[in-house]
Amino acid sequence: MATAVETLGKLERRLTISFPLSDVRAEVEKRLKVQARSARAPGFRPGKVPLKMVAAQYGYQIETEVLNDKVGRAFNDAANENNLRVAGFPRIEPKEGAPEGQLTFDATFEIYPEVEIGDLSKVEVETVKSAVTDSEIDKTIEILRKQRVHFHTKGEKGEHGDGGEAIAANGDRVTVDFVGSIDGVEFPGGKADDYAFVLGEGRMLPEFEAATIGLKVGESKTFPLAFPEDYHGKDVAGKTASFTITLKQLEWAHLPEVDAEFAKSLGVADGDLAKMRDDIKVNLEREVSGRIKARNKEAVMEALVKTATLDVPQALIAQDTERLAEMTRQDMAARGMNVKDVPFPPELFQDKAERRVRLGLILSKLVGDNELQATPEQVKAQIEDFAQSYEDPREVLKYYYSDRRRLAEVEALVLEENVVTYVLGLSKSSSKDIAFDELMGSAAQA
Question: Residue 358 pLDDT more than 60?
Fold first, then answer.
């Protein structure tokens, strides 16, 4: 039995549910008898334990299970009778003053909101496009060369035509000993032996690299180094240290020539340089296409968030906040970090969770109203697209189709693309060219 629905706020509702105590007792007794058939106790054969002993051992657990079942069923029945779309889980609390022989509870919960999507024909969405030219292919080849760099010791006369005694310069790999002190006292992390790094890569602070440039093997230099205020080492952040470095080894970088051997190292069996460039272009175009899709999808999602009107259930935000925190914890643990005692305050994830839930409700409304669900043909085409970059495409198809969760991830991706296509078809969309480096971000700068 349930009372009328009380409105407590925009989305918050309350139901009072009640059922006879005798129903609970009858179900508890029924389950105890079932439990007794297999119960064991010292001095009794299996199934011959007295019911009172079974009740003493299992009664509280069974009573709790029955009560949860009764309350859950009563709440679901009441929600269905009142056509309520419950968001999240209800908060169930015993209600005082219940009639004798009755168990009464208040169920407080939120409902899904009404989602109003504005006139999409008036929405402005700016998309991006970018082309892969010979310049981008050349840059990629240089990146691939740098990834295959090897180093040779710089001799006394110097390699690659520098003449004279070798000195450290940008691009060289140096191996140094260093020790740092503040006010004459060494500090943790300020000392190392046989520490190697490449000059010009930015791994060390600028003052450190500047002091190393020009040194010869065996030479030392003492210099001041001011740590930035936001330096990750809090003990030295904002302070000035005195460092002494000694250059122990000096090596120059040898980049491989762009020849047949280089092409073979990239998987071009016959070493054909033209084929190598074609392969690089295909891979770059696939990467560019993926990043453009991601940028354009984000632009559409942002436009939808701005044009849609809805109240977001706090229960769903709380659930997604917990989900994001757990995903972060698992990711950090997978990277080898000890997260056992690391706090994950909910407020770190709340804004992101709120936006995710808001977007999910908006997409659900759009998909339902406009039949934008992913079709089996679209899902298969998407998986086949994924498979193009793998040696055995059939294994990729098997990987996805053998697991319903993986398949659901692809379906969600296709569904989002359907929404993007639908919105762009209705909105005032414009397109602008974007530089390859800007699109690729740090990946193009490597």
Answer: yes
